[in-house]
Write a structure and sequence with these properties.
This protein is of the alpha/beta class. It folds into 2 domains: 1-85, Outer Surface Protein A, domain 3; 129-381, Rossmann fold. It contains 16 helices and 13 strands. The strands form 3 sheets. A 7-stranded mixed beta sheet has the order 7-6-8-9-10-11-12. The protein is elongated and about 80 Å long. 41% of the residues are buried. Residues 363-374 have a biased composition (Basic and acidic residues). This is TOMM leader peptide-binding protein. Residues 129-356 form the THIF-type NAD/FAD binding fold domain. Residues 393-404 have a biased composition (Low complexity).
């Protein structure tokens, strides 16, 4: 191990004996009381030295025997220490790609904040390269979302859609103006390639085969049709539920941005649960949906550009949290925000006993995947990669005082 203080956390001395790491309440930690020798030793935790050399430096600074190991252990438990050479073989392979790592360095810094174990941030960043995500829908939301996932290091991002690019599909970070008139899926895939920090690996599969590939880590449904955003058709997700493929909904309908639910088949509420619940609360719901779906569609819907980009970013953040092994708040929840207030609020999508997804039966007496604890994500249990993560306790919010 080559310990290094996590560079993403700014350091400042609160007084002569107390040092604070980080500025925001979510990640700020204080350490003290600390003598001047121990404070000087922190500067040596820069990843350039292994533990044997650090012990020698500790003796040079007249630190008590065993203080170096105890300090490194406590800093590691507090989530303040990274391992400059940790992360495993996949991380070692990524270190060899200097240009790729330079592109992803801000993402790596962020992952070190949410990953307490030394070397865990780079391990998760490297693991993204082995994942496959499919985005269904390449409008203002879908194309931007796909490019963000690709730019964040997801190894393979597929985009599915039909038709040709219209002028109102164009968005910064998404489909460019010069793609108007081109096939929508082809143009979106070009955007994904340009955003990627490296070339996507070749896979022995055919994206247009129709059947859901079991190697998919996540499918994100970003329909351009407003009705499909507001009332997702459960039939569209039946192949995903049957194959156990996690999927996330996102879109804009009549000036309202929607993110979620993230559906974990057999665990959390799905589009069918949403439909059944709405029918329970409003008997006219099925009649309205039928009219909306068969009615004459408008040429363009109300999809504010800033709201579309916001939805794309939030959906991408939820997707990455899930792919990295966390439990995003969109699991079993639909987040909505409407113009002009843009106040986000959540609507739980609970498993419904009348839905055939079986989540309601499993939810009885079993651990819920949406209780805020980390979980072994389905994304990393699928054939895309063989890695597993053990669930661990979430890091406490606010400041924490460790006496060393």
């Amino acid at each position: 191990m080559h310990p290094m203080m996590k560079p993403a956390l700014r350091r400042g001395w609160r007084d002569l004996e107390t040092v604070q790491f980080g500025m925001t309440p979510a990640h700020a930690l204080t350490l003290g009381p600390m003598d001047s020798a121990t404070g000087s030793f922190l500067d040596l935790l820069n990843g350039a030295r292994g533990l044997p050399l650090l012990r020698q430096e500790g003796r040079r600074l007249n630190l008590p025997e065993g203080r170096v190991d105890a300090l490194v252990e406590r800093l590691s438990r507090a989530g303040l220490v990274d391992d400059a050479r940790g992360g495993g073989p996949a991380a070692d392979a990524l270190r060899q790609k200097e240009s790729v790592l330079r592109r992803l360095r801000p993402d790596l810094a962020s992952l070190t904040l949410t990953t307490p174990e030394p070397g865990g941030g780079l391990a998760r960043l490297a693991a993204r390269r082995a994942l496959r995500v499919r985005v269904r829908g390449a409008g203002r939301v879908g194309a931007v979302l796909a490019s963000v996932l690709s730019g964040a290091g997801v190894g393979e991002v597929e985009v599915q859609d039909s038709g040709r690019v219209e002028p109102w599909d164009v968005a910064p970070g998404g489909l460019p103006a010069e793609s108007v008139g081109d096939r929508r899926d082809t143009a979106a895939r070009a955007v994904v390639r340009r955003a990627a920090p490296e070339r996507a690996p070749r896979r022995p599969h055919s994206p247009g085969s129709g059947a859901e590939d079991p190697g998919l880590s996540l499918v994100i449904l970003t329909p351009r049709d407003e009705v499909a955003v507001h009332a997702p058709d459960p039939r569209e997700a039946e192949p995903l539920l049957a194959s156990g493929t996690p999927h996330l909904y996102a879109g804009v309908v009549e000036g309202t941005g929607v993110v979620g639910p993230l559906v974990l088949p057999g665990e959390s509420g799905c589009a069918g649960c949403l439909h059944q619940d709405r029918t329970d609360r409003d008997p006219a719901w099925p009649r309205l949906v039928a009219q909306w779906r068969t009615g004459r569609s408008r040429r363009t819907g109300a999809c504010d550009l800033t709201l579309a980009v916001t939805v794309a970013g939030l959906a991408a953040a939820h997707a990455l949290t899930f792919l990295d092994g966390g439990s995003p708040s969109a699991a079993g929840v639909r987040w909505e925000a409407s113009l002009p207030g843009l106040t986000w609020h959540s609507r739980p999508i609970r498993p419904h006993p009348a839905c055939g997804c079986a989540a309601a039966r499993k939810a009885k007496g079993e651990h819920s995947s949406t209780d805020g604890h980390r979980r072994a994500t389905m994304a990393v249990q699928r054939p895309t990669t063989e890695r597993r993560r053990e669930a661990g306790a979430a890091r406490p919010t606010g400041t924490w005082r460790a006496h060393v």
